[in-house]
C-alpha cells in the first residue's frame, strides 16, 4: 500500500511540476511572439487555430519525406521540430487568451487513465 501511495504522490507532484513548467514556458513563448510583432492588433481566433493545424500538416509531410534532419535545427528530425511548432503555437495562443492548457493536459490525462480500452471504440 505504501508503494502505491508513494507512486500516487510522485505522479501528483510530477503533474504539478509539468503544469507549472508548461504555463511558464507558454508565458515565455507568448512574450517572444509579442516582442516579434505577431500580436500587433487583434488576431483572428480561427486563423490562429488554422496555423496550429498547418504545423501538424508540416509534421505529416516531414514524416512522408522520411523525417530528414530539420534545416534550422539539424540535431532534430523534422517531425519533432514541426510538432514543437504545434506546441509553441498552442502555448502562444493559450497564454494570450488565459487558457490553462498545462492544467488541462494533466486533468485530461487523469480522465483518460480511467477510460476503457480504445475508449470502447473499434479503432
CA(first)-CA(last) distance: 36 Å
Assign a percent range to the helix content. Answer: over 70%
Write down the Rg: 18 Å
Task: Summarize the main sheet.
Answer: none
Low-confidence segments, given as residue ranges, are: none
What structural category do the secondary elements indicate?
Answer: mainly alpha
> How many separate domains?
1
Task: Note the run of SSEs as H and E.
Answer: HHHH
**Beta strand %:** under 5%
In DSSP terms, counting alpha (H) and pi (I) runs of 4 or more, how many helices?
Answer: 4
**Shape field:** globular
Structural summary, described in words:
This protein has 123 residues and is mostly helical. Helices cover 71% and strands 0% of the residues. It has helices at 2-35, 45-64, 78-97, 101-113. Helix 1 packs antiparallel against helix 4.
Précis, in short:
With 123 residues, this protein is mainly α. The chain has helices at 2-35, 45-64, 78-97, 101-113.
How are the secondary structure elements laid out?
Blueprint: H1 2-35, H2 45-64, H3 78-97, H4 101-113
Helix pairs in contact: 1-3, 1-4, 2-3
Properties at a glance:
123 residues, mainly alpha, globular
Amino acid at each position: 500500500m505504501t508503494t502505491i501511495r508513494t507512486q500516487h504522490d510522485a505522479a501528483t507532484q510530477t503533474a504539478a511540476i509539468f503544469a507549472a513548467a508548461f504555463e511558464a514556458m507558454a508565458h515565455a513563448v507568448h512574450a517572444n511572439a509579442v516582442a516579434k510583432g505577431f500580436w500587433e492588433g487583434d488576431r483572428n481566433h480561427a486563423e490562429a487555430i488554422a496555423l496550429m493545424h498547418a504545423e501538424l500538416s508540416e509534421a505529416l509531410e516531414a514524416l512522408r519525406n522520411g523525417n530528414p534532419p530539420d534545416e534550422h535545427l539539424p540535431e532534430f528530425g523534422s517531425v519533432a521540430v514541426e510538432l514543437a511548432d504545434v506546441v509553441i503555437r498552442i502555448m502562444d495562443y493559450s497564454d494570450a487568451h488565459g487558457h490553462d492548457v498545462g492544467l488541462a493536459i494533466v486533468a485530461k490525462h487523469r480522465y483518460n487513465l480511467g477510460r476503457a480500452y480504445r475508449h470502447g471504440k473499434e479503432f
